[in-house]
Amino acid sequence: QLQLVESGGGLVQPGGSLRLSCAASGFTLDYYAIGWFRQAPGKEREGVSCISESVGTTYYADSVKGRFTISRANAKNTVYLQMNSLKPEDTGVYYCAAGKFTLRSMCNLGPGRYEKWGQGTQVTVSS
């Protein structure tokens, strides 16, 4: 069964950190671009960060630049999202997704090219 599973969410105070994990089963993440998306209550899903299949190209939403870092651990078939200096507006359900792009060095923050999605993990930033 092809599956993505997110973990690492939770409740954290403003200024704190969390590391989200996106683990795959049934397929190898090495051959996919990976995106992280989030959805806050009452808002549309938005792209947060992505990493390309090869070369390691990364993109970040302006709202998280300098605070979030996406990385791969291919030996563990896992992609991470390190989130530092968290703000209340980072609250939401975080999803990872895997997709194929025309160029292996590409990814983007639009959901359309991502074909496999996890169930999400809740992140709440509150004092």
Structure report:
The protein is mainly β and 127 residues long. Helix content is 0%, strand content 48%. It contains no helices and 11 strands. The chain has strands at residues 3-7, 10-12, 18-25, 33-39, 46-51, 58-60, 68-73, 78-83, 92-99, 114-117, 121-125. The strands form 2 sheets. Strands 2, 4, 5, 6, 9, 10 and 11 form a 7-stranded mixed beta sheet that branches.
Q: Structural class of the helices, strands and pairings?
A: mainly beta
Number of strands: 11
What is the helix content?
under 10%
Strand-residue proportion? over 45%
* Separation of the first and last Cα atoms: 39 Å
Q: What is the rounded Rg?
A: 14 Å
The biggest beta sheet is recorded as: 7 strands, mixed
Global geometry: globular
The topology string of helices and strands comes to: EEEEEEEEEEE
What's a quick, concise take on this entry?
This protein is mostly beta strands and 127 residues long. It has strands at residues 3-7, 10-12, 18-25, 33-39, 46-51, 58-60, 68-73, 78-83, 92-99, 114-117, 121-125.
Based on the model shown, name its key terms:
single chain, 127 residues, mainly beta, seven-stranded mixed beta sheet, four-stranded antiparallel beta sheet, 48% strand
Question: Layout of SSEs?
Answer:
Elements: E1 3-7, E2 10-12, E3 18-25, E4 33-39, E5 46-51, E6 58-60, E7 68-73, E8 78-83, E9 92-99, E10 114-117, E11 121-125
Parallel strand pairs: 2-11
Antiparallel strand pairs: 1-3, 3-8, 4-5, 4-9, 5-6, 7-8, 9-10, 9-11
